[in-house]
Amino acid sequence: MKLPYTVRCEATKPMTRTSPKLHSQKPPHVETRASVCEELRQATHAAHVRIHRHPYLSGLLKAGYPLAKYQALLAMYTALYAAIEAQIESFIACDDVPFVYFNRRKTQWLQDDMAHFGLNLHEPPWQPPALPALRGLNDLGALIGTLYVIEGATLGGEVISRHLHEHLELGPGSGARFFNGYGDAVVTRNNWQMFCGFANSIDTQKNQRASAKLSAIHLFELIESQLNALHAGIQQLNFCHQ
Prior knowledge:
Elements: H1 36-43, H2 45-52, H3 67-95, H4 107-117, H5 140-168, H6 177-180, H7 185-199, H8 206-232, H9 234-237
Helix pairs in contact: 1-8, 2-8, 3-4, 3-5, 3-8, 5-7, 5-8
């Protein structure tokens, strides 16, 4: 019996599955944002370099730096830090900021150094340059920008401390308490990391990050202006020959 139709069986070609070309696929774009401390470092780089290269500080890390120049520097920093730290502690107390600063105070360190040398801020030639009005700490960002400069200076003071000991024979108990900072390299770095962690509390707040940058730049420029005033009075006080 014949079938009404003939079925022709043809060899079927194996189906091939096309694998996606993984190498041609671009990974999804993920925006990365610098940490607050890194953004502040970038924003203040130029101002920081100017201070590092300031003529008044030229030679501070070398032998032969006049002691009287160093003492005048201490007097300037004493007045400056006293004003800045008064602002910091007032803001923290009034706004209930979750950052402990009382154990980081640096004004007392400077006062200890001044006392070691028997210097009086109110007597010439140790009266510091007149201090311009400070930028107000109006928000958390401004506080963080100010602290960035203060805590960063403490971090960098380790290098200066070693040279002061080597060239001027000054130490924590003999006129260089301020630059000795927290006294231990590990503690100093831990305190810096703790601050950077606190700074990141404004990580997602664009306006606060902007305020932090303005505050940090302002303080660097204020320090620079005070160094300019000291440098202008060098010849008058004849520091270079003491």
